């Protein structure tokens, strides 16, 4: 889209006028690429030299310009490099570009078009010479890489920007709860059974939380006693509730109650 909101016309046809041109694909070291990215577009970045002798392969070298070397004087990098050449035979690689055209009278972009700049015929890898400058640069990079990412620093003043929380509220409450449960002493088993039987005389069903409050016993110890004298209901309507086993119940079942009522009625009729 242009600045005026109008869509830029895209020419979908690829311009192949330079398809027959051979180009080089050069791989350069990272330190050189960083220097080139910082360099302005109107300076010379280096000179390429190709020397060829009869019966030998061509020797290609690259020398960086003073303008590139002096971009950041504190960061010294090698000036001279050799380029190892390899021919591309098993791949078909190309270089493409796209440009947005404008007219002289109207600077608003009109058309976007793609071009093929050439076909890659050689790959070159730029390598520095192992001179003193290169060895010094590698030594510095190894030293920086060996430094730990985190360092301990002493603060002379209190930092008020942020204060990390040493412990969260829910963690403190959870530890206090576990500590309180751990301090609960185990009473004698018979005393716990008496408390349970007294409780079940009032209600038929209890959940484990209520029984812990009533007996004030550790939950693991209480469950051991409950398994001996109680049944745990797994189905509704009293799911997850504890109830005394039949042999420990003092209340009568509904069937027994009906039999007692029937017996009571028969005795009344006999008396009449």
What would you note in describing this structure?
The chain has helices at residues 30-38, 66-69, 132-146, 169-183, 189-202, 208-215, 219-229, 254-271, and strands spanning 9-15, 22-27, 46-51, 59-64, 80-87, 94-101, 111-128, 230-232, 242-244. The chain is an alpha+beta fold. Strands 1, 2, 3, 4, 5, 6 and 7 form a seven-stranded mixed sheet that branches. Strands 8-9 form a two-stranded antiparallel sheet. The longest helix has 18 residues, at 254-271. The protein is elongated, with a radius of gyration of 45 Å. Residues 255-272 have low confidence and may be disordered.
Class from helix and strand fractions: alpha+beta
Order of helices and strands: EEHEEHEEEHHHHHEEH
Radius of gyration: 45 Å
The number of helical elements comes to: 8
Major pleated sheet: 7 strands, mixed
Query: What value does the average pLDDT take?
Result: 81
Give the oligomer, counting copies of the same chain as homo and different chains as hetero: single chain
Q: Which segments are poorly predicted (pLDDT under 50) over 5 or more consecutive residues?
A: 255-272
Q: What percentage of the residues does DSSP assign to strands (E)?
A: 15-25%
Percentage of residues assigned to helices: 25-40%
Shape: elongated
The termini sit apart by 110 Å
How many strand elements? 9
């Amino acid at each position: 889209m242009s600045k005026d909101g109008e869509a830029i016309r895209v020419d979908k046809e690829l311009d192949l006028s330079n398809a027959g041109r051979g180009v080089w694909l050069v791989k350069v070291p990272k330190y050189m690429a960083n220097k080139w990215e910082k360099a302005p577009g109107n300076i010379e970045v280096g000179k390429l030299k190709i020397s060829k002798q009869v019966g030998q392969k061509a020797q290609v070298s690259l020398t960086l310009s003073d303008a590139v070397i002096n971009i950041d004087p504190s960061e010294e990098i090698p000036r001279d490099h050799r380029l190892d050449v390899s021919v591309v035979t098993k791949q078909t690689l190309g270089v493409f570009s796209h440009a947005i055209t404008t007219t002289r009278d109207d600077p608003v972009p009109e058309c976007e078009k793609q071009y093929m700049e050439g076909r890659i015929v050689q790959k070159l890898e730029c390598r520095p010479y192992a001179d003193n400058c290169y060895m010094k640069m590698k030594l510095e990079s190894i030293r920086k890489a060996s430094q730990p990412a985190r360092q301990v620093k002493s603060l002379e003043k209190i930092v008020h920007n942020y204060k990390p929380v040493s412990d969260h509220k829910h963690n403190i409450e959870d530890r206090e709860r576990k500590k309180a449960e751990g301090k609960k002493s185990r009473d004698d088993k018979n005393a716990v059974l008496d408390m349970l039987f007294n409780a079940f005389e009032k209600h038929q069903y209890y959940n484990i939380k209520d029984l812990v409050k009533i007996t004030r016993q550790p939950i693991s110890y209480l469950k051991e006693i409950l398994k001996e004298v109680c049944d745990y209901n797994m189905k509704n309507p009293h799911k997850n509730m504890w109830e005394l086993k039949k042999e420990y119940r003092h209340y009568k079942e509904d069937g027994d109650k009906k039999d007692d009522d029937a017996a009571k009625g028969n005795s009344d009729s006999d008396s009449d």
